[in-house]
Amino acid sequence: MIRLTFYIITALFISLVIAWVASNPGQIIITWQGWEVRSTIAVFIFLIILYTAAIWAFLRLLKWLNISSYLDSPKRLAAKRRKGGIDLDQAWSALALGDHDQATKMGLRAKSKLGEDHNVLRLLASAAKQSGKIDNPYFEALKKAPQSAPWALKQELDQLIELKSWEEALPIAEIMLSEHPDNKNLVEVRFLLLARLGHWYDAREALKGKGKISPSLKGHLIAVVEYCLALEEKAAGKKNEAQALTKSALKNDAKFAPAAILSARLYLEQGDQKSAEKILNAIWKRSPNSEIADMLIDLYPLESAREIYRRVKTASEKAAESTERQHLLARAAIDVGNWPEARHALDLNIASGKPTKTTYQLLAQLEREQKDDNVAAQKYIELSEKLKDDFPWECNACQSVFHRYVPICPTCQEFDSLINPSFT
Ligand SMILES: [Zn+2]
Questions:
Q1: Low-confidence ranges of the chain (pLDDT < 50)
Q2: How far apart are the CA of 395 and the centre of ligand 1, in A?
Q3: What interhelical angle do 257-269 and 290-297 show, nearest 10?
Q4: How far is the centre of ligand 1, averaged over its atoms, from the C-alpha of 411 (Å)?
């Protein structure tokens, strides 16, 4: 009934339009390149209707010939997906070879066949990242889907860390950590970002309880942070607080020499040589370095060379075999004229295959003082000049060398990257 009413109204409307057109006969003139076509409105409308009918008939014909179903056929779609997959593989290969332009080209070709597929977006995001682009629209697209967001965030985080943009990287690490609070890599990354930014209290909190970082690594990292806090307290004149922090640092990592050295310095400032000696002897046993050796030698300003030799010998005997141990022993022995002991200690360094510049300098000193042999001494000086200077600390990220430990490398801004090269 409704449909019939609709047809009647439509027919009535069409006849009204026809009647109106018939009573208002207009003219249409089309001129083009010297040609002129004149027609009435009625004929013009008739031609439009004819054109529409022809299109409709053509589409019916296509449907009848089954062409559209061919376009959507599963076989054809599968072939298209396969080609897209090959493009994507080639794009990843180009990326692996470092050719990000080719990777992007093949990635876009894959995208035209596979659409906004996550794997395609991942490739395009990686290629854009490799080209060094900071604004990466593909990361943004991937971050919107929960299943691909962790990957995109991790890539962005890595890129910011590579660019040393600690400030920008920190909130991303925090977003990721809120989703995966027990992930030990994320706990460590966030800790390192806070530490590189000098947020020592937050850094120490970041390590407490959460994540499954190995206890020894956690202990060491807390020790470094506490050492940094101790330095700040010392600079503020709060020596007791600083000393308490160095003690806590050594409890967390008994091998962390900088905390022991700072503790000994604080004792020496108070005139407490005995406590400083205890701390220095303990750290000398675990991780000897030339800075501790210098402090051990100069500990008691009024001591005679013989007293120094006896004290240093006792300390050395308890320490593990190391280049630093032989150097300290040789120095003290040369000062008291104990030539056999000095030579034995230095020969051990030569035999270990790890003689350093200091080893040869001490041998030269020995040749001069024992035998007054300047020719032999010169030979050792020449050997020493072929080696690089002895530094107690070297950055394992940028290879800069330092006399004193610093928690953040001034050259490359890495946190806790300084190692004792004679100990590796
Ligand atoms: Zn460095």
A1: 424
A2: 5
A3: 20
A4: 5
Q: Closest Cα partner for 209 from 194, 177, 179, 187? A: 187
Collect residues with CB below 5 Å from ion ligand 1. Answer: 395, 397-398, 400, 409, 411-412
So where are the chain's domains?
81-149, 288-390
Question: Distance from the CA of 189 to the center of ligand 1, in angstroms?
Answer: 18
pLDDT (tens digit, 9 = 90+) per residue, 220-256?
A: 999 999 999 999 999 999 999 999 999 999 999 999 9
> What is the CATH T-level fold of the domain 81-149, as seen in this structure?
1.25.40
The pTM for the full model equals 0.71
CATH topology agreement for domains 81-149 and 288-390: yes
By the 8 A CB rule, do 118 and 105 touch? no
Whole-number Å distance, alpha carbon 416 to ligand 1 midpoint, is 9
pLDDT in tens, 387-420: 888 888 899 999 999 988 999 999 998 999 998 7
167 CA → ligand 1 middle, Å? 19
Class of domain 288-390: mainly alpha
Q: Ligand 1 centroid vs 7 CA: distance in angstroms?
A: 85
CA distance 329 to 345: 7
CA 120, CA 14: separation in Å to the nearest integer? 53
